[in-house]
Structures are given as C-alpha cells and as structure tokens.
C-alpha cells in the first residue's frame, strides 16, 4: 500500500513553469496533492511533468469505503487548489487509498488505516490473513473549479500467515505509513495469494482509472524529451 506522506513541507517534482503548445497555448500544470513516494514514482514512470504539493487535511476513516476514499481525495485536491487561488492555471490531483474488509454479510465494512505501531501492524496482518480484502482508491481532479471523480477497487487475498511470517514482516518496517500495514511492491508480495484488478491501485495510484478520468493526461502533461 502507499506511504501517503501527505503532511509536510511542499516540494516540487519539477521547477518548470506551465508548458506551452507549439501554437503558444499554455497548458495547465499538473499538481499532485500528495507526498506519497509511490504516487510520485508512478507518475514519474509515466513520463509526466508535475509538481508535488502535499496537503495537510483531516481525513475520514469511517463509512462506506468508496465514499470515504473519494471524500479524502476531494479534501486533499480542494485544499491545494484553494491555496493556489483562482488565478492558478493548474490541474490538481488528489488520491486516497484504503484497505477495507466486509462484515455482517457485506452490510458493513471495517477500514484499516496506517498502523500506529508494530503491535497494531501485527493485529492488522492477523485480521487480513487468509481472507480477501478490498483496496479502494478515490481519485479527484480539480481544474478551474470543475471537480471530476473516479474510484477503483482491487480485491486482494492474503495467504494464511503464521506468527513467524507476521513477525518477520513487521520487523522489516515496511508496514509503517501504509494503509493495511503492507506494501505489495516490496516484501509484502510474499503475503499475497491472489490479486484481482489493478496492481497499481494497490501500490497507490490506479493509472487506468486516472486515464479514464483524464483521457488527455499524457498528451497535456508529458515531460519534454531530453
């Protein structure tokens, strides 16, 4: 799962200003309203030119998972967009990813956030052991006052984990700062039995959903070739 890193000082992934088309038309800057290293890496691997401007907002942690994820992503994106002001020519991307398990025959859900400490990480992994959970992401794009929203859900099934495996994984420290207490792109891969859906959603940013939300993302925000 993603390491959110949303709180903290603003930082730019690129110092270039808003780019212009060959005809002189200025394109809005893409701004990631998150300090997550995983989200930065995914956008960077796509070859996108973007700024990083983490938001520091209170996040929901109770309710229907899709509603919670979208609400948190909306708060992040709107906080950054409002701070920039109406004159800013930017597209702000907010994203929130959470882990949820169903209970009461699917009528209710438990949301598993970032474990507070090693004991909480062990408890989370014990709960996820041998069962299927959902990784739910909310995506929000804010541009010139327009708010666009998308969600992505990936089903992940863990192997049955014994205490030795859980203790080993917790000792690695990968659980820190990650919803659900694991990182699929790291040593956490050994915890999994099956994944159904978008792998990058579990890492922290569902690219397919993002491109459906913004079909011209690559054309408008690709970094200049060097």
Mean pLDDT figure: 88
Q: Assign the CATH architecture.
A: Alpha-Beta Complex
Q: What is the CATH C level class, in words?
A: Alpha Beta
Order of helices and strands: EHEHEEHEEHEHHH
Q: Which sheet architecture does the biggest sheet show?
A: 7 strands, mixed
Identify low-pLDDT runs.
Answer: 6-24
Globally, the shape reads elongated
The N- to C-terminal Cα distance equals 32 Å
| Beta fraction | 15-25%
Account of the protein in words:
This protein has 226 residues and is α/β, with parallel strands linked by helices. The chain has one domain: Maf protein (Alpha-Beta Complex). The protein has helices at 37-45, 65-84, 118-128, 163-172, 199-203, 207-213, 217-221; strands at residues 29-32, 50-52, 90-103, 108-112, 132-143, 146-158, 192-196. Strands 1, 2, 3, 4, 5, 6 and 7 form a seven-stranded mixed sheet that branches. Helix 3 (118-128) crosses helix 4 (163-172). The longest helix is centred in the N-terminal third of the chain and has 20 residues, at 65-84.
Which descriptors apply to this entry?
226 residues; Maf protein; 7-stranded mixed sheet; 25% strand
């Amino acid at each position: 799962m993603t390491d959110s890193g949303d709180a903290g000082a603003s930082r730019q992934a690129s110092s270039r200003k808003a780019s212009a088309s060959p005809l002189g038309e200025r394109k809005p800057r893409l701004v990631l309203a998150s300090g997550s290293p995983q989200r930065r890496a995914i956008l960077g691997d796509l070859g996108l030119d973007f700024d990083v401007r983490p938001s520091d907002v209170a996040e929901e942690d109770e309710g229907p998972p899709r509603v919670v994820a979208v609400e948190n992503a909306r708060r992040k994106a709107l906080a950054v967009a409002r701070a920039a002001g109406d004159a800013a020519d930017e597209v702000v991307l907010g994203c929130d990813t959470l882990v949820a398990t169903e209970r009461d025959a699917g009528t209710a859900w438990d949301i598993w956030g970032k474990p507070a400490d090693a004991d909480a990480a062990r408890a989370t992994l014990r709960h996820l052991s041998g069962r299927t959970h959902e990784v739910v992401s909310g995506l929000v794009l804010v541009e010139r006052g327009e708010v666009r929203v998308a969600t992505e859900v990936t089903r992940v099934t863990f192997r049955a984990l014994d205490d030795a495996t859980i203790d080993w994984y917790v000792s690695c420290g990968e659980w820190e700062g990650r919803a659900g207490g694991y990182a699929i792109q790291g040593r956490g891969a050994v915890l999994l039995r099956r994944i159904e859906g978008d792998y990058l959603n579990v890492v922290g940013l569902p690219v397919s959903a993002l491109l459906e939300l913004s079909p011209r993302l690559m054309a408008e925000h690709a970094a200049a070739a060097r």
